[in-house]
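note to self: dont lose this again. the chain is below, predicted strucutre after it. 158 aa total, dont forget to put it in the shared folder this time
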Amino acid sequence: MEVDSATQTACAACGNSANKRCNGCIEGINHAGAPSPTFYCSTDCQKAHWAKHKAECKLADARKQLFRAGELLQAVFYIFREIAFDILIASVWEKGGNKMHFYEKEWEGHEEPLFMFPADSIPEDHDRHALLTHHACGDALAYLHEFSLKVTKGEYRM
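---
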């Protein structure tokens, strides 16, 4: 796949200016989760470099799949926790920087141990996610174990 001239980089095989990316790892990512396409100046250079590039190409694609599986599992966990929310919140407010404060009510006398998640009181996604995982840091593995196995085996895709 060709890219525009502003995105040109060095060919992985010969070092000349390159504007074509390897189609195998075009969406692949590095260890940090950033895109890591490999560039070539020609099909001949790509073919000549394939023996060296093959393993990294497959790893970049595998990392992409793993990151997508992680994003899917995280989204499912947030949805599950919002439905199965077990903290009775009296009030929520944010005070200074990245700290969110909330008061819990005692839930004695309530028949059900699940409560409405106060989504309207928490406008920011990162704050909602923090509250959804409060008291439940280790629960994701227990709740999503079977689903995690299926996602990593490729039985579910985003």
